[in-house]
Amino acid sequence: MHTRLPFTARLFVVITLTVLSAVHVVQAGTNYPPLPYTDNFSNNSVTSDDNSTTFWTTVPNSLFTPKQVAEAGSNLVMASNGVIGSTLVGIDVSSTFNFFASPLAFSVSGLNMSLSTAPATAQLFRFAVQDSGSVTAAADATSPLSSGVDAAVVIDITGANHLTLNLKEIGLAVSNPLLSVDLLSTPTGFTLTLDGTVATPTFSLLVNEGSSSQTFNGTLPGLNQTNWGAIGEKGWSAISLAGMNNNGGTGTLVTATVDSLSVAAIPEPGTVALLTIGTLLGAIRIKRGWRR
Ligand SMILES: [Ca+2]
Ligand SMILES: [Ca+2]
Predict the structure, then answer these.
(1) pLDDT digits (tens, 9 = 90+) for 203-233
(2) Could you tell me if residue 22 is inside a domain?
(3) How far is the CA of 75 from the centre of ligand 1 (A)?
(4) Which residues pair with 39 in a beta bridge?
(5) What's the gap in Å between 279 CA and the centre of ligand 2?
(6) 142, part of any domain
(7) Which CATH number belongs to the domain containing residue 186 in this structure?
(8) Predicted local confidence at residue 276, as pLDDT
(9) What is the 88 CA–ligand 1 centroid distance (Å)?
């Protein structure tokens, strides 16, 4: 036999469910931003992007001098005297940052650590594409795989021009680092292209070094969308950027500045082929026109 709950009890249930669903909405990822996306860090507010959308947060949430995450002169400035570092990270994951749905190119320009007082080997800039927001990709500078998020592709660049790429995903054993190289000269930025649309996901990393550049290609073996992020948000990502002082000594500071961050979808090969054919046909027409 069913007993009907008193009105106050039913009201309580309805209110509880409403609150719970509201909490769920708050925690859900975002469909912002549309691609291509660029933040030039030029509005003097670290938590809002150039579109005046509150998109970023910092880790630690409250920063005390000398730690800082700030915007100055249209640059993102991250300073830290410790291994935990100073991080700028997306508040939550974005559905448009899903490299399992379409290959994506993540670009950082204007990277500069020359203002650091820590030794070059202790200077660390960390960039990550990760499966949750408001947390670091990894807990500290000493290990790109320690705690932090469950899944991430992490790029570490030191002031001594050493670059590593690490992959972590819950339940996945990876032979990290997947890439470890001494760059030819000081990097000024890079474009990391991730493609999770293929059976074995791939990365391509173009590193700009002033007048020259280097490209590195590889695979992300075992990386799987089903292990990337929460239910209903599989494959959605947040981005983090951090300046870290990897045991540079008391009183020394790492200052990493970045001019801009952008994310763009890579056209499918078919689209590229069509565009190329279109360009060729156009060129042929122009040439014929000249002959007349
Ligand atoms: Ca800028
Ligand atoms: Ca801003």
Answers:
(1) 999 999 999 999 999 999 999 999 999 999 9
(2) no
(3) 5
(4) 261
(5) 38
(6) yes
(7) 2.60.120.200
(8) 62
(9) 15
Domain interval for residue 242: 28-282
Q: Structural domain tally of the chain?
A: 1
For the CA of 45, the nearest ligand = 2
Within a domain: 1: no
Chain centroid, CA 82 distance in Å: 21
For residue 261, how far is its CA from the centre of ligand 1 (angstroms)? 8
Residue 105 C-alpha from the chain's centroid: 10
Q: Is the pLDDT of residue 8 over 80?
A: no
Ligand nearest to the CA of 38: 1
Q: pLDDT grade, residue 28 (50/70/90)?
A: confident
Ligand 2 centroid to Cα of residue 70, in Å, is 9
DSSP-derived secondary structure for 133-195 = SSS-SSSBTTBTTSSS-SSEEEEEEETTSEEEEEEE-TT----S-SEEEE-SS---EEEEEEE
Kindly tell me the sign of the dihedral angle through the C-alpha atoms of 284, 287, 291, 292: positive
- Write the secondary structure of 237-270 as one string of H (helix), E (strand) and C (coil): EEEEEEEEECCCCCCCCEEEEECEEEEEECCCHH
Query: How many whole angstroms from 175 Cα to the centroid of ligand 1?
Result: 36
| Residue 8 falls inside a structural domain | no
The answer to whether residue 7 scores a pLDDT higher than 80 is no
Distance of CA 284 to the CA centre of its chain: 42
H-helix or E-strand spanning residue 27: helix 7-27
